[in-house]
Amino acid sequence: MYSMTTLTPRRTAILTFIRDRIAQQGQSPSLAEIAEAFGFASRSVARKHVVALTEAGFIEVNPNQARGIRLLNPPARPEWLDVPILGRVAAGLPIGADAEVHSRLQLDPATFAKTPDYLLRVQGDSMIEDGILDGDLVGVRRSAEAVNGQIVVARLDGEVTIKRFERNGDSVRLLPRNPAYQPIVVGPDQDLAIEGVFCGLVRQG
Questions:
Q1: What's residue 205's pLDDT?
Q2: Are 131 and 188 found together in one domain?
Q3: What residue stretches are annotated with the Peptidase S24/S26A/S26B/S26C domain (predicted)?
């Protein structure tokens, strides 16, 4: 039995696009339209995703029609995640964290690599090379431990930031992913705590 969690986020988005197009226009999109909507270089890339959705049992395709995609009754959708948004986290210099629950979002579990415990809104651009932009909501899974190279939410002297974690012996650095920013070298007299690890993001608007 297949479920939405067996699909990649990209294929989940393509399936949603197909459903929306059928609901709005009464016909499925062509491969060319799928390719254009998702920025694929060719229809063959779109075809690969359509074949995967067909094999997963979500759609069927009439090869003799240009718009031959038809929705099948999909398996029951998993429960949506109800995730709280807790303040903000800096992707530049650390800023004070506001731990109040500002609101909640209902999200598809397929959005995240692991189920997040909460979301934080990013402020700043120091993680842009990892695709984390100012204003994004990052999913965070609570964890006091991290391995080298992981993106973490760290509390340093009471302030919170999102960076890549690097430990070398007793030395710890919090690394930005923007050459305009310098690594944060954690001093021996500073109070560092790993709040959680990054497990995906939500971009609104």
A1: 57
A2: yes
A3: 84-198
Pairing of strands 69-71, 101-107: unpaired
The pLDDT averaged over each successive group of 10 residues in the chain (205 residues) is 59 86 83 92 92 90 86 64 80 60 77 87 92 91 92 91 93 95 94 92 77
For the entire predicted model, the pTM comes to: 0.60
Q: What is the DSSP letter of 144?
A: S
Whether the Cβ atoms of residue 202 and residue 136 lie closer than 8 Å to each other: yes
Domain co-membership, 16 together with 101: no
Are 189 and 113 members of one domain? yes
What domain range includes position 127? 81-202
Q: Are residues 64 and 128 in the same domain?
A: no
Cβ atoms 109, 93 nearer than 8 A: no
Catalytic annotation, residues: 126, 163
Predicted pLDDT at 2: 42
In a domain, 186, yes or no: yes
- Strand partners of residue 90: 123, 161
